[in-house]
Every structure is written in structure tokens, then in C-alpha cells.
Specification:
Mean pLDDT: 93
Shape: globular
Strand content: 15-25%
GO molecular function: 2 iron, 2 sulfur cluster binding; electron transfer activity; metal ion binding
CATH class: Alpha Beta
Keywords: 2Fe-2S, Iron, Iron-sulfur, Metal-binding
Number of strands: 5
CATH superfamily: Beta-grasp domain
Structural class: alpha+beta
Cofactor: [2Fe-2S] cluster
Low-confidence stretches: none
Protein name: Reductase
Family: Belongs to the adrenodoxin/putidaredoxin family.
Length: 108
């Protein structure tokens, strides 16, 4: 298991335990993290699981493929560390990962 911290745009933190092999998005969904909508179910076709990977982790993850890059370009408030959390697989090496959520995915 890996612990992942999701931080909402307002600063509220959610630390979850993620199963190896699942996506970071699924870990958020399983733990009811607000701001991860996942409308497409993890197929990289909606960007409603968009998050900002903490800068300390960006080089520890595989680079996004063309499909992910294309979908990220359609998201709101894109930053250099933007990723689709559905495309990030949980491994023991991700223990401690921090993902911030964009203001555009704030649940009200």
C-alpha cells in the first residue's frame, strides 16, 4: 500500500491508502476525495481527474503519453505538473505522493 495525499484547492487535505496496481484516480474515488469526478471511468477522455503532481514527484513518474498530453491540453488551469490521475498507477515507490486539485474541480 502507498499513502497518497490529495489537497483540495482550498487547502483541505485527504490522506488515503492506495492499493498497488490501481490508479491514483481510483484511490481517490474509493476514498471519496472531492474534486476527482472521473466521468470517463479512467480512459483518459475527460480530464475530470486532473491533478497537479507535487513538484518533488514529477521526475519519479513515467512521462505522459500522447493521449494524456492531448487531454490535459483540454483541461482548465493547466500547469507544467498537470497529470490525469487515471493514468498514474500506484506502486510502492509512490508512497508519500502529493496531488493538488485545481480550483476548477472544487465541489460545492
Amino acid at each position: 500500500m502507498a499513502k497518497i495525499t490529495f489537497i483540495e484547492a482550498d487547502g483541505k487535505e485527504h490522506q488515503v491508502e492506495a492499493q498497488e496496481g490501481q490508479s491514483v484516480m481510483q484511490a481517490a474515488m474509493d476514498n471519496l476525495v472531492p474534486g476527482i469526478v472521473a466521468e470517463c471511468g479512467g480512459f483518459a477522455s475527460c480530464a475530470t481527474c486532473h491533478g497537479y503532481v507535487d513538484e518533488a514527484w514529477t521526475t519519479k513518474l513515467p512521462a505522459p503519453d500522447a493521449a494524456e498530453e492531448g487531454m490535459i491540453s483540454c483541461a482548465y488551469h493547466v500547469q507544467p505538473n498537470s497529470r490525469l490521475t487515471c493514468q498514474l498507477k500506484v506502486t510502492p515507490a509512490l508512497d508519500g505522493l502529493v496531488v493538488r486539485l485545481p480550483v476548477s474541480q472544487t465541489s460545492e
